[in-house]
Amino acid sequence: MAGTGSVQDGEAMGVHRQTLHRRLRKLRTDAEAAHRAHGRAGGLQKALEKQVRLTKLPGASSFEGKVASRWTPRRPEDFSAPRPDSFEQVLAVVAVWESWIGTSTLTPESHVRPAWLQSEAYKDWKRLLEDAHQETMDTRRRTEAASSAEAEADAAVTRYRQRLVQAYRRLNLDVLGPDERAGEQPAIGLHQVFEAPLLAWGPPRPELPARVWRELVERGEMTEEDLPPRLQLEQVDKWRRTRTERPPQRCWKLWPHRKASGW
């Protein structure tokens, strides 16, 4: 079976794979339309399979017609980029499709013409296959590297949390008594005595009375340009309403997406 490299979830389809898919898809569409227009008998898949096997290119003798569908799906995200071990099969398919639209790629016996193998068109297809495969490998290496870095970061966070739990899970009351009574003190969890600080939405900016600002200017510690704009009464009223409508709460309640700590 021909080797392929599918576009995985979250893996971007690069420009070379997009180009390869687009060109293969268009060639297939044009070739099948020409095949039908000539009224040739038999199914398209079987006809393609039969002719590809006669091209004499390496690997073509075991070609299965259904494989071409993976190289030319309607949706780009379903495209399976061919791997090097199937390049010759792809080129044989291209030669057959090209012959269906009138290009002189095959002999009367359906063998690939040596002249086509030396043509710029053949070299262009081969180069595009190589670029698409290289792009696939580069993308996968970047994805694997990113996944590895993310896993290492998660592991580091887990180790850090374990050290925090080990060091601060309970109060160390042994320091309050003699050494010989170490371990006899009651076990008090940190969560039993910890008081979460209060947080408020939109706290006000500290403001000084106008008299203080004027004194600072008169003493030369500030200039007129350094003075803040006049404080508007509606700004004060707005902050007071905020304090009433959204009073301060314990920080744990305002911490989004917090996970249970087990403390």
Structure characterization notes:
The protein has a two-stranded antiparallel ribbon. A two-stranded antiparallel sheet has the order 3-4. Mean pLDDT is 78; it is low at 1-11 and 257-263. The radius of gyration is 37 Å and the shape is elongated. With 263 residues, the chain is mainly alpha-helical. It is built from 10 helices and 4 strands; from the N terminus they run E-H-H-H-E-H-H-H-H-E-H-H-E-H. Helix content is 51%, strand content 4%.
User: Looking across the biggest beta sheet, what order are the strands in?
Assistant: 1-2
Care to count the β-strands? 4
Mean pLDDT across residues: 78
> Low-confidence segments, ≥5 residues, pLDDT <50?
1-11, 257-263
**How would a crystallographer describe the biggest sheet?**
2 strands, antiparallel
Radius of gyration: 37 Å
Shape: elongated
Helical segment tally? 10
- Strand composition percent: under 5%
- Cα(first) to Cα(last) distance is 55 Å
Could you spell the SSE succession in H and E letters? EHHHEHHHHEHHEH
Secondary structure: helix percent: 40-55%
